[in-house]
Amino acid sequence: MAGSTTKKVRVTRFDREPVLGYVNPQTYLRGTGVELLTPDGGFSTIPYEDVKTVCFVRDFEAPEPAVERRTFHTRPKMDGLWVRARFRDGEILDGILANNLLQLDAQGFTLIPPDPTSNNQRLFLPRAALTEIQVLGVVGSPLRRPKPKPAPQEQIGLFDGQ
């Protein structure tokens, strides 16, 4: 998500229409809510209690969210914490959370969704939108060290003994 200072987002809300706009990934989380610049130039702050997810998207014109995969079918391959979040409305969503406590936000969790081909690149889930978040597994644990490689064979001398 590096590059420009603003990113396209789709803010899904409980029982309301989604809001499209742009956010600065470094400063969009405020004490009162999510700061958003709408495509027509309006500026608003959406309270965390109203926000279900903030989806960092590739394009505003997205397919129906019901088409996207919500859980992993098998153990994920990318490093991080494999988590399952349960929203206030009972919906369940899997994702990969960074295995770094310094990257956790006080307002919620940023994770990578299970469908790599979807329009959503990353998701922010406010704590106010969740009833539960459960760690299902640790993928690529730093505690597991790679097996040591065998010592390389001495290279043969091509011109030795001539």
Explain what the structure shows:
The chain has 162 residues and is mainly beta. The chain has one domain (7-139). Helix content is 0%, strand content 40%. It contains no helices and ten strands. A hairpin with a 7-residue loop joins strand 8 (108-112) and strand 9. It is elongated, with a radius of gyration of 21 Å. The chain starts with 6 loop residues before the first strand and ends in a 23-residue tail after the last strand.
Task: Give the count of structural domains.
Answer: 1
Quote the average pLDDT: 83
Order of helices and strands, N to C?
Answer: EEEEEEEEEE
Q: Rough shape?
A: elongated
Would you report the number of β strands? 10
Rg, alpha carbons: 21 Å
The end-to-end span amounts to 60 Å
Q: How would you write the strand order of the largest sheet? A: 2-1-5-9-8-7-6-10
In which range does the helix fraction lie?
under 10%
- Overall structural class, as computed from helix and strand content, comes to mainly beta
For the sheet with most strands, the description reads:
8 strands, antiparallel
**Unreliable residue stretches:** none
Q: Estimate the strand proportion.
A: 35-45%
Number of helices: 0
How is this fold's topology laid out?
Elements: E1 7-13, E2 19-23, E3 33-37, E4 43-47, E5 51-57, E6 80-87, E7 92-97, E8 108-112, E9 120-126, E10 130-139
Antiparallel strand pairs: 1-2, 1-5, 3-4, 5-9, 6-7, 6-10, 7-8, 8-9
